[in-house]
Every structure is written in structure tokens, then in C-alpha cells.
Amino acid sequence: MSRVSIIVLIAALVLAGGAVAYRMLADGADHTVPVVVEAAFPPTIEALKTAAEADPLNPGPWQELGFAYYQTEQYEEAARAYRQAVEGDKENAVLWSSLGEARLMATDSSEMPANAVSAFEKALELDPTDARARYFLAVKKDLARDHEGAITDWLALLEDTPPGAPWENNLRQTIEQIGKINNIEVAARIAAANKQRPAAPPAQALTAGNAIPGPSWEQIAAAGAIAPGEQRDMAVSMVESLDAKLRANPANPDGWVMLMRSRMTLGEPDKASQALKDAIAGNPGDASRLRKEAAALRIE
Q1: Is residue 282 in some structural domain?
Q2: Which residue has the higher pLDDT, 173 or 237?
Q3: C-alpha to C-alpha distance for 70 and 62, rounded to whole angstroms
Q4: Which of 7, 74, 147, 233 has CA atoms 20 to 30 A from the CA of 262?
Q5: How many CB atoms lie within 10 A of CB 196?
Q6: What are the distances in angstroms from CA 281 to CA 64, 151, 218, 243, 294?
Q7: What is the CATH number of the domain that holds 117?
């Protein structure tokens, strides 16, 4: 089954994609933020919350819940969900940077809150390449009026950004915008940074552990019109349909990863384990990657 079919079936899988608007807390200017977004299938927030609370130390469902809250602008709730996700996986840089972003968006302060800064710093301690943490710590400099320092850090991030990365254009626009606002020439510096950039994105980056999964706001809103019991039935039906399609055409590693994620979100670890076995059987050349994806989801 093609990736396009998966997107149509389960409301879109977007690997390492998307951008959200950053509220400029100091002076009201708009900034654009690179983030990594993955959509699985459209359970409601209530369903995600139920799944998360059923397994308090499983970071996956809490990450799902945090992103769903974030998408609906419930930033304090998102921060609480990400904080619980961190309790289940304290070595996951993506969870820490997600927590920092949610804490930042939850504040009305004109300064970046200390607990957001500490989360971003923890993310970089675990993974110095974490793009979101690097971006927002540069934002911190911009908020403190160190515009040159912020631009320098963003340019360094641009140097490490593979051509075609989903956040590439947004990052470049941020640099151009802040340069224009503060009369800082950036065109030549952007050109120089572009020359230093890697040729291509890393091969087979994990989609399960290094993304922010969750439904879009539109998907949540649509599912919200359905009775609670029917909401889960809809999600189960979609996952079972994906399962059947993968069994008919198993040569689709990404589809199996989505099925494993979906099974875990539904609280079906045994079926997730079986999906891993079936995925490896149908894609023996991708066995190593599939096992790593399963490990990121804590599938045994």
C-alpha cells in the first residue's frame, strides 16, 4: 500500500513536516517555528486522555495527548501531558523540547519562562542537534534584544538543515524577517550558510520516536461530533482496515510503523507486537529499522 493510501485512510502521515506560528511575546511580531509533526489517526482528546491515563509511564500516548492539546491551543494541558511523557522517557530530547514549546506557548510573560528554557536546555543536553530547542533558545536571545546573537544561532541551524527539510523555508524567512526588522543584513550570510549545508537528510530517521504524533485540529473537531463510544469504534475500524490492507500487501514498512503506533495508542500492545512480527516477515530487509521503531514505541 502506498503512502498516499495511508494518508487517505488514516487522515495523513506527515513525516518531519509542518510549522506552527510563534507568538512574539516581546513586541508582537510574528515568527515562524520549525517543528516536526506526524498525524496518525483521528481519536478525540478524550480518547487520547483515556489511553494515556491507562498507562502513566508509557510516553507514547502522553505524547499523542500533548500534541492534540497543542493543536487545539490548550497549551497548559499540553505542557502537563508532555511533562508526564517525560516521566516515561527522560532521555528523549524530542519530548523535552516539546515540553519547552508548550510551556512557552502557555505563558503571557514578555520573557521566555524559566521552565521552558530549562526544558530546551535539557533537550540539547540529550541531543545537541534538536532543531526545535536550538530554534527556541535563539528566540530567547531575540526576546532579550540580542537580535544578532539570535540570527547567528538561526544561521547555524540553517547550516545543519538538509535541503528540502520541511522547516527550511520557514527558518530562512525568520532570519530574513528579524534581519529586516532590526536593520541587520542577512542575505550574504544566508547564502554562506546554504553552502555549508548537508547534501541530503539522514536515511531512515525514526518515525516513531522522533516525531510528534497526533491528530489535526480539524480531525479532532470532526470526531468530536460523534458520540464517545462511536469515536473509538471509528478509530478501531480505521486501524483494522489498515491492518487488513497491510496483510494483503505487506511490503510497506511505513504502513507497519503506523499500525504499530496505532495499536499502542489503542492500548493493544499484544497486537502491536504481532504487527512487528508481521512487518519483519513482510519486509526482512527493513528488519533492523522496524525493530528500532518498535523499541521507540516500547513494543516487545
Answers
A1: no
A2: 173
A3: 12
A4: 74
A5: 11
A6: 28, 49, 36, 14, 14
A7: 1.25.40.10
